[in-house]
């Protein structure tokens, strides 16, 4: 099976993916590998070489020195107090994207937590995005539903039907992805092709969980996804295409 970056290379730049600009990719949900995926892809494509813009529509930390490479430009307004880059106006960002082969946008924030419930204005996916990647870790399964695990806990419980203090179930994550009876879900604000990526899938047990969760998603929802994959950013490994 091809590596993770090879899969994305084919999806971003393969046959039939032409257009007036390069791919504009928004990456959403919590700290289950969203930022890691962005920089992993940025480094790979910068070495192709392709020109890469990394930016945010919310807030993100500037790149570490190890992430700085020729060909990668980071854009945002630095908040000196927090040390984070904050979003450029969408009009300004829209004007910049044509200068790059690939634009990678961090379009969500969760205060370092792996899962979240979305406020009305979240995630912030620009309308000119051509791909939206939802990154979801599965290691929280079985752990207590709590504010230590989930950002905007009340909104998460409203969306999923989960009860605070009880164990997080696979059915709850299915509602995070495909939507529950109330509230926003992973792809509500998506633009362009939708890709669901289960990250930190590094053993047989987690591969089985990823396959089980993919099978729980409603068929009509799956039809609107461009791809469902599972793998590991850390290992640059693709282990499942559902």
Q: What does this protein structure show overall?
A:
The protein contains seven helices and 13 strands. The mean pLDDT is 92. It has a single domain, classed as Rossmann fold, CATH 3.40.50. It has helices at residues 4-13, 34-46, 90-96, 153-160, 170-178, 204-216, 219-222; strands spanning 24-28, 52-56, 59-60, 72-74, 77-79, 84-86, 102-106, 115-116, 131-137, 150-151, 193-199, 227-232, 237-241. The chain is an alpha/beta fold and 242 residues long. A hairpin with a 4-residue loop joins strand 12 and strand 13 (237-241). Strands 4-2-7-1-9-11-12-13 form an eight-stranded mixed sheet, with helices on both faces. The protein has a three-stranded antiparallel sheet with strand order 3-6-5, with no helix packed on it. The chain has a two-stranded parallel sheet with strand order 8-10. The radius of gyration is 17 Å and the shape is globular.
């Amino acid at each position: 099976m091809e590596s993770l970056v090879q899969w994305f290379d084919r999806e971003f730049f393969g046959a039939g993916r032409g257009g007036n600009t390069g791919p504009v990719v928004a990456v959403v949900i919590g700290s289950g590998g969203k930022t890691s995926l962005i920089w992993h892809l940025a480094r790979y494509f910068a070495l192709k070489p392709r020109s890469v813009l990394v930016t945010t529509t919310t807030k993100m930390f500037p790149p570490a020195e190890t992430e700085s490479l020729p060909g990668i430009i980071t854009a945002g307004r630095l908040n000196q107090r927090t040390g984070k880059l904050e979003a450029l106006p969408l009009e300004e960002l829209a004007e910049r994207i044509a200068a790059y082969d690939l634009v990678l946008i961090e379009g969500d924030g969760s205060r370092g937590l792996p899962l979240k419930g979305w406020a009305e204005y979240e995630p912030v996916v620009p309308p000119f995005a051509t791909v939206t990647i939802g990154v979801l870790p599965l290691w929280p399964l079985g752990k207590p539903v709590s504010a230590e695990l989930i950002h905007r806990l009340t909104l998460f419980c409203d969306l999923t039907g989960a009860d605070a203090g009880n164990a997080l179930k696979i059915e709850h994550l299915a509602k995070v992805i495909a939507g529950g009876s109330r509230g926003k879900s992973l792809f509500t604000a998506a633009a362009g092709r939708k890709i669901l990526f289960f990250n930190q899938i590094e053993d047989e047990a987690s591969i089985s969980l990823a396959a089980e969760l993919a099978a729980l998603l409603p068929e009509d929802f799956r039809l609107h996804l461009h791809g469902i994959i599972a793998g590991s950013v850390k290992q640059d490994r693709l282990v499942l295409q559902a």
